[in-house]
Amino acid sequence: MDLKTLLFSFLLACAASSVRAATPVYTYQVVRTFPHDVGAFTEGLFYEDGVLWESTGLPGHSFVRKEMLDTGQVLQQHDLPSRDFGEGIVRWGGLLYQLTWQEHFGYVYDARSLAVRAQFHYPGEGWALTKDARHIYMSDGTPDLRVLDPRTMGEERRIHVTDEGRPVSNLNELEWVKGEIYADIWQTNLIARIDPASGHVVGWIDLAGLLPRADITPGRTDVLNGIAYDAAYDRLFVTGKNWPKLFQITLKPRP
Fold this sequence. Notes:
single chain; disordered N terminus
């Protein structure tokens, strides 16, 4: 190979490496708005059996409850001990699991009555939970999602989450949506769409401007957090900590 051909091949390789496609970004359209308890510091959210399930944080203000989506009416509620900082929740069969933030243990409830049945333990912090048909997934604020055995809540492995090769930190509230894990990124308006097989972020959802300025109370309204998916009717819901509204949205590519 002569020098000219070698140089051309080198430049071609450099060009090819520089045109790596960026991760797609999606924006949103609001379909419908629902009431949300402005006093709820939302940490966990999911929708099952026609009911919205929610957990909240902050010592003295942490609870887990079931509520009506359309009206926000509380159907059942269990308050955590005042020392606990509640985090994410997931239902598995007849049980409901809830994390705590830095206490290194979670609660196991009877999903029907919300009565405490047991506790389970884990190292590090607890942030959020979601599930597929076989596993429970847990975030802890790092770029790693823990894959748990639902029978024991023991850790089986971890999924390292990256975007174009870079670790993605602050993975917060989680939701399983059509074979992907959606994750709120704490302190941002972004949701990452994660391929659970590879850990790669396959898309970003930018929810900037979702909560109208008129609904933002300085010093009270906190960050985006809370994703719920109604698989039966393909409805996606999002809210935030101390937000007065919950939104049903559809996604659309950002121009």
